[in-house]
Design brief:
Layout (H helix, E strand, L loop, with lengths): L4 E5 L9 H15 L3 E7 L11 E5 L1 E4 L2 E7 L4 H10 L3 E4 L4 H12 L4 E4 L4 H4 L9 H13 L3 E4 L2 H9 L5 E4 L16 H6 L7 E6 L8 H14 L3 E6 L5 H7 L4 E4 L3 H9 L3 E4 L8 H8 L4 E4 L14 E4 L4 H13 L1 H15 L4 H23 L1
Parallel strand pairs: 1-2, 1-6, 2-3, 6-7, 7-8, 8-9, 10-11, 10-13, 11-12, 13-14, 14-15
Antiparallel strand pairs: 4-5
Helix pairs in contact: 8-12, 11-13
Amino acid sequence: MRKPRIALFTGNYNHIRDGVSNTLNRLVAYLGRHGFDILVFGPWSPNPAMPHEGNYVPVYAIASPGRPEYRISMGFPSAEKQKLRDFDPDLIHIATPDLLGFRALRYAMKNDIPVVSSYHTHFSSYLKYYRLGLLEKPLWAYLRWFYRNCEHLYVPSPTTMHELRREKVECELKLWSRGVDTNLFNPGQRDPVWRRSLGFADDDIVIVFVSRLVWEKNLNMVTGIFRKIAGMTSSVRTLVVGDGPARKKLAKSLPDTVFTGYLTGRELARAYASSDIFFFPSDTETFGNVTLEAMSSGLPSVVARAVGNISLVDEGKTGYLAGANDEDRFTKCLLEIIENSELRVKMADLSRKKAQTYEWDRMLDQLVRYYNEILTFNNHQGG
C-alpha cells in the first residue's frame, strides 16, 4: 500500500529565508517523518539562501524587477509537469497563488485531483508600499476565484479568517497556526557578555527589531520611533537584527543603533533573549513569526495591529498593539514598558507562557489531520 503523495507548490522554498520558507521546509520534514511522500515545486535560484528539505523540483524563474533577490516562476514547463504526472499525487497543496500556483490549480482541476491552499502572505497590504493600490480590487477578484476552487484554505489566525470572510472568499477556511521552537527561543539564551560586546551596559533597556530589511516592513516607522525614543531617554538602546536591500539606508538613518546583520539558530535566539522589548510596526504579516519568537524568548511586544499579531499579543498583558501609522501610540506604549520594570517582568512571563501553547509538532499535526480529512473522503468516494 503506497504512502499518501502530496505535491507542494510554492513561490519561495529556498531562495529567501523567511517565515514562509522556514514554515514550508519544516512542514515537508514533518510529513516525511509521518508517512507521506512529498514532491515540492518552486522557483529556481542560482544562489539558494538555505538548504531545502525533501525532494525539490526547481521551476524556471527570473529575478523580480527591482528586487533581484526575489524569484518569479514563469509558468509550469512540460518537463516539470511530467515529473508531477509521474509522481501521481493524491493531493496538491498550493502555498502561493502566483503563475506557478495558477498552473498547478488548472492541472489539478483538469485531472480531478483535490487541491488545498495555505495563506502565507497578505498580498493586499503590500500594494501601498509599491503605489499599486488600484490593483487591490482585481487582486481580490483573482484570489476569490483561486480559493473557490480549493477544498480547504489554511489560515494562520482567527483575524486572518475574519478578513478573508469579509472579502467574500468562498472556501472552507481552516485554522492552521504556526509554531515556535520553545526550546531554542527561551529566556535562558540571554547573554550579558554578548550584550556588552555590542556596547550595551548591563542596565540598558534594549529595544529590538527583527526582520528582513525591506521597506514594506514599515522601516520608516522604525526610524522615526528609534530616533524619538533615543531623544527621550538615555537608558534605552536600539538593536536591529536582519539584512536586506534597505539595510544600508536604514543604518545611515540610525547611526546610534546596533545592526547585527542576518542571524539564525542560537545566535538569533541569543539576540532576542538578550534584548528587553520587541518592537515590530509592520502590518504586512499574516502570522507574526518573529513576534512569537520574541514572546517565546520572554519579551514584551509593541507591534502593529495587523492580522498576524492580533491573535498573539494580548493587549496590556503580553504587550501592546498600535495602528501601523500611529507613531504617538507606539511611543507611549514603549515608554510605559520602559519606565515600569514590574510591568516589563510581568509581560515577559506571560509572553513566554502563551508562546508555549504554540509548539510546532502540535501545529503540524493539525495540518496532517486536515489532509487526512480530504484523503479519506476521496478514498471513500473512489471506493
